[in-house]
Structures are given as structure tokens and as C-alpha cells.
Amino acid sequence: MQKIYLDNGATSFPKAPTVGKSIYDYIENCGCSVNRSTYNEAFHVEDTVFETRELLCDLFNFSNPENVVFTKNITESLNTILKGFLTSGDHVIVSSMEHNAIMRPLTNLQGSGIEFSKVSCSNKGDLNPINIEQHIKSNTKAIIMTHCSNVCGTILPIKEIGEICKKHNLFFIVDSAQSAGVLNIDMMNFNIDCLCFTGHKSLLGPQGIGGFLIKDKFNALVSPLIEGGTGSLSEKENQPNYMPDKFEGGTPNTLGIIGLNSALKYIKNIGIENIHKKEMQLTNIFLKELKQFKDLRIIGHDDCTSRSSTISIELPNMDMGEFSYKLSKEFNISTRCGLHCAPSAHKTLGTLPNGTIRFSIGYFNTEDHINYTLDALRKLLT
After folding, report:
1. Are the C-beta atoms of residues 129 and 160 closer than 8 Å to each other?
2. Based on the domain organization, do 166 and 222 belong to the same domain?
3. 57 and 157 co-located in one domain
4. Is-cis flag, bond preceding 244, omega within 30?
5. If residue 186 lies in a helix (H) or strand (E), which one and from where to where?
6. DSSP-derived secondary structure letter, 382
7. I want to staple 243 with a disulfide (CB 3.0 to 4.6 A). Which of 39, 66, 123, 303 is the partner?
8. DSSP H or E segment with residue 4
9. Do residues 192 and 157 touch, judged by C-beta distance below 8 A?
């Protein structure tokens, strides 16, 4: 029985074809620590790390590779920014579609005198930018928002939100976990001050690597979350204040960076417009057939308008976990069920407390995968 992987919203599978080999080659043939050695292999790896920063700049239209910071994931990136920037009395704005990577740090920060307002989205996950301005207060410092819902795939209008931030002199922080590598993100033209990313989803890299790109003006106001050895200014016991060392205390995940480097080159070669086109072709096929089922409800948009390739369905009077398990056990189809670490989004979509079953289509899926999955759904629902 063939394996059908439709859980790319959790992590992409398979990875870009060159990722595994590049990591293996580093383990077997290199063996060095970045910024801490003075031999040929170390210099080569340091060049690769810097090249990875440049590749990310190229992908997101950002001009300063020194301001590309690596972390272990986007959750660490968001925590670094939120906890390093906000102070008592500050206020920020989020949407009602946010992941817990944003909501949990902000909820924790409420205990330190930080406030947030949540802009309501529609029951399809859409956000009207006009509704943001009524939440802006005299102490509002930033808008923090996801680009694309990890539950239903609805895309939020970050370009328009960036214009609002510029108009009101607010910083704009974007969570690109579900969009980087498949949707166009232009930091300069979208007025994004800090773009947080993860490497293992649509960027097609390994787990354990993420980061953020941050503009100078905003960077000057953010303190590091982690401090430690950097291989620089080792005679001093305070953290360097220059980039990227300011935020990169401790040995980095060099394996992850090398794997991400290979994935970014693969994406650059294919082109994100071609990746997006293929994913949406498959999404269109899937949605068109799902609408023929009487016993399920498509959550969010039921066409390809303002959405990604992440599709959630609700099955009335059925347990989402049990149904997802049957897809795996009987048909070897991998999906994700439940609340997807985004209870606020599920509340907005009207899918609390049971959640949904999520099918997240990736670049390496095929039309045969989609048709096989549709046949499996027909068998289970008839």
C-alpha cells in the first residue's frame, strides 16, 4: 500500500532531494563548529552559513544578510522577538487566527503588564484590514500576524496590514510558518520589520532550524533571549551587540543550516511561483470533489480564493481522531486531526471543541495521491 502524505502543514515530506545528502556529507566529511575554528573545513562551512543568509535575503527581498538570525524553530524566533521587545505598558494587535506560537507568549506576557487586542476574522478566516485601525491605541507598538492559517489555509492580507503599520508608525512582525517558500513575501514592499520563518515546512528543509530577518530600526529595540558563546569577543563576558552574534549565543544547528541551504537552492531553481501553481492545481481538484460529499463541511474557503493548499474538513457526529486514524490504518494516508495548536483559529471558524481533519498538500504530492484520498473518503463515508 502506497504512503500518501498529506500532513505538510506539520512538516514537509519528502524534503528537497538534496537535503539528506548535504547533511550526510557534513557529518561524514567535515566535523567543525561554525565561528570557532581556523581550518579549511570550518571556513567552508562558515561560507555556507553566510550563503544561507543570502539565500533567505533573496527569497524575501531583504538586503542585509547580517540581520538574518538562525534559531531552532519559528516558535523560538517569535518568543525572542516578543519577549525581547515588549515591556510593561505596551500594547500589540493580533488576529483571531493566530497559532499558539504567538498566543502563548503574549498570554504569558500579560502578567508583565503587556496588553494585546485580537482582531476578529470571519468564519472563513478572512481579515478585513479596516477592522485593525479601530484597535490601535496610543501605546500600541506593533502588529503581529500570521500570513496564512495553519488550520484552513486562509491567507491574510499582509501587504495591506503593512501599509497600516507604516501609516501609524507601528512595527510589523509576520509569522510565515505556513507560507515561506510557497507564497510571495516581500519584506521591503510589504513593510515587514521582522519576518519569522521555519525551515522544515514549505521551505522543504530539515526540522530544528528556523530564524528571523530583522530590520535595523527594529533590531535596535530588541534584546536577545539567549546569551552565551559566539566565538567572537570571547574576552568579554557580555553578549556582543552586533549582528547576527547578538541573537546567536551557543553552538548553532549547523546540520540544519546546511540542509536548509540545499532546500533553498532547490526552491530557487524550481521557482516559488511554480511550486504554488502545482499545489493550487491539486488543491482545486481536491476541493472540487470534496464539495460533492454531503457528510462533510469544508472549513474556510471552498475554492482557491485567498487560500493555500491546507484544507480542513469537519465531519458532523464523527470523532476527528478516529476518522484520521482510519485513513492511516486502512489507506496509509497521513493527515492531522484536532485543534492544530490554534484554538483561537478554531473558535473563529466554529470548530471548537472537536477540531477538524486537516489535509495539507505539498509540492511532492501528485494528482494520483489526491484521487486515491478521495476514493478513501468515499469508502469511509458510504
Report:
1. yes
2. yes
3. yes
4. yes
5. none
6. -
7. 66
8. strand 4-5
9. no
As a whole number of angstroms, the longest Cα–Cα distance in the chain is: 71
Using pLDDT thresholds of 50, 70 and 90, give the confidence band for residue 190: very high
Place of cell 484590514: 129
* Other beta carbons less than 10 A from residue 341's beta carbon: 15
Distance CA 117, CA 136 (A): 9
Give me 125's grid cell.
478566516
- CB count within 10 Å of CB 134 equals 8
Question: What CATH number is attached to the domain comprising 305?
Answer: 3.90.1150.10
At residue 292, the 3 state secondary structure works out as coil
DSSP string covering 359-375, please? EE--TT--HHHHHHHHH
Least trusted range by pLDDT, from 26-40, 105-119, 155-169, 223-237: 26-40
Residues 334, 373, single domain; the answer is yes
Compute the Cα dihedral for 171, 207, 101, 223 and give only its sign.
Answer: negative
Same domain, 264 and 275: no
Structural contact between residues 337 and 356, judged by C-beta atoms closer than 8 angstroms: yes
Confidence of residue 245 (pLDDT cuts 50, 70, 90): very high
Asked if the model's pLDDT at residue 36 lies above 90, the reply is no
